[in-house]
Structures are given as structure tokens and as C-alpha cells.
Amino acid sequence: MKKRVSNIEVKKINRNRIFRYVNNRERTSKPEVAAALGISMPTVLQNVNELMEQGLVQEVGELESTGGRKAAAIAPVRNAYHALGIDITQNHLGFVLTDLSGTVLKHARVQKPFADDRGYYKDMGEAALEFLEREGGLGKGFLGVGISVPGIVDNTANQIVRSHALGIAGVDCSRFSEFLMLPSVFINDANAAAIAEIYHAETRFNAAYLFLGNSVGGAIIQERKGYLGDETANDRLYLGDNWRGGEFGHMTLVPGGNRCYCGKEGCLDAYCSAKNLSRHTDGKLERFFEEMEKGNKGFEKLWEEYLSHLAVEVNNLRMVFDCRVIIGGYVGSLIEPYLGRLQEKAAALNTFEADGSYIQACRYRVEASALGAALQQVEAFVSTV
Prior knowledge:
This protein is α/β, with parallel strands linked by helices. The chain folds into 3 domains: 75 residues, Winged helix-like DNA-binding domain superfamily/Winged helix DNA-binding domain (Arc Repressor Mutant, subunit A); 131 residues, ATPase, nucleotide binding domain (Nucleotidyltransferase, domain 5); 161 residues, 2-Layer Sandwich (Nucleotidyltransferase, domain 5). Helices cover 38% and strands 21% of the residues. It contains 13 helices and 16 strands. The strands form 4 sheets. The chain has a 5-stranded mixed beta sheet, sandwiched between helices. Strand 8 and strand 9 form a beta hairpin. The protein is globular, with a radius of gyration of 23 Å. Transcriptional repressor of xylose-utilizing enzymes.
């Protein structure tokens, strides 16, 4: 009986690895899958045929010949399933539609100041359903909704423990999904953005993901051993003992300094949230950078001060975790042209190295939190294949 169970489990693992490999590529072949995963050709053939019967893989012609017989090309049927991601902020709702590829197919952002009342949740549900209907996401292959919030989410208790940004505590997650009437899962916004960042990574790595939105958060990404795809992206996040792992925004940067929205003084959030820049341009962060590029000396000075504070935090993260630091959030989506200056400032603070190349800009820059939330539903499905 133990051997039988073991064989069933091995078959399931092989099928899942094969599907993940195919799903992460535009086109591949059965010999390529076998060689890449170290799985025998008969096993690959059997599993690919089963995946074709399930409508998850299809043949798409032939690959170019490398000297012998042309191999049949196979590709994932990514549009067989869809998921919706919703990012809740203080002032907006962000929506993302994705398929099994885990990329942003459609996205939208609407202004909607948060309020903890039934009217807000009803409007949110209606806006989400309108987005889905407009973009053709609802149907037989709809997996569900992922919702990201700027706060501490305890999935074991199905509760938002606390969100200083939204001004709520001890709120049951069902309050947010009451008017959606769709399967819903919840995740912290910075953790969601980090998941979007690593979901399609070809190699594993350790990283501190610094989320610079209208509030500052973060995530701690761990390298895991074993085959890629053996664990979910969530398994690579360190969440801590109280679901607060990566709350970089409330590390004390300047003792006795500027007051943070949380009520404490000197938090990183009080110095490096996107609002510290966008408040000078009527809440439009892009305009801040546009004005700075036009030679606005006042904005250039503000940006230098911002980078100086950010460099201290980045150097602290480097000292603690000894890994790459990824700059995400609204600021991360615009920081790449100025990354060299941040690297210089951080390197000047570093005790061990004079190179700041460990600092990187995020790859996913459009509704990353909403995408990462939607990926919770995608991953839940993929893990069952």
C-alpha cells in the first residue's frame, strides 16, 4: 500500500512539474521537457497526453530542426482559465485580469476612497463585476478573486488583523467579498507585489522587497532548495510569527523624527512613502518626476533628500539580510533612471562593499499588488494539476 501511494504521489509531482514547465514557456517540445526536468520520455509523453485531454496543453506545429526530425511543438492553453486581482488602497481600487500565464491581460484603476461601510463594499463588488464583464473574464474557466490590502492579513483566522493605512482592525475578510459573491482569497499588498515579482523567475534568489507605495511595506523572499515549481511562490515568503514579516515601513529611520500615520515618530514610511513626493504635484507621482526632469531645482533637492533616507534603509536591509534589495511600489516603477544615484548613496554607507549593484528596480510595474493577489487563485489551481 505504501509503495502504491508513493507511486501515485510521484506521478502527481511529475505531472505538475511538466505542466509548470510548459506553462512558463511560449512553446517547447516533449524532448526538451524530458531533458530539462530529468524525466523519462515515456513519462513525459503520458503526462502531456493527459494534459492535452484536460485542455491545458496543445500542439502548435513543429519546432525548427536542429539536424534531425522536427519535434512537435507544444504550448500551454493559458486562456482556459482566468482570475481577478483587486488592490485596495486608501483612495483607489486597482483591477487586474490574468490567465494561467500570470501576466497582466487587462487592468484598470478607479478612484474610490476607502470607507469601512456597506456602501463602499457594495460599490467595490459592483465595480469588480463590471470590470470582469467588460473584459470577458467571467465564464466557465473563472478561478476566483484575489484581494490585496495594505495591512496584516491572518489567513488562518480569515481576518485583517490591522491596517493603519485603512484605519481598521480585527475585520473579517468576508466583509470585503460580501458583494462579490465569488471565491476570494486575501493577501497583504507588499507580499502580493513580491509574489508577482518572483512568480516567473527562472532561478531562485534571496531578496528584500521594499514596497514604496502611498504606504511603505515589504516582503522577505527566501531561496528554497529543490526543483523549481515544487513549492508555491507563497512558500518563499517569510511571514514571521505574527504575519508581520517585512513590515519595513515601520522600522525607525530617524528617532524622534517626522510623525508617521501609525502615530509613532521617525518611521521609514514618514520619509519614503510615495506621498512624500506626490503631495507636491497634487497626488500625481509621475508629474513629480516630469517636473524634476524639466529642471525644477526644488524637486531635485527633495529627490536627493528622499534618496538619502532611502539609501539608509536599503543599506540596513543589506546588512541584515545580505541579499539583493528590490525597489517596488509606485516609486519602484519609476526609479530605474535614478537607480545609479541610489546605488552610489547606499554604497557610501556600506561597511563591506563599495558596490550598490545589489539594488534593483522591480520588474512588474503595473498593478503588481493586484496581479500578485490574482496569482493566489492561479497558483491554487496550478498546484492541483
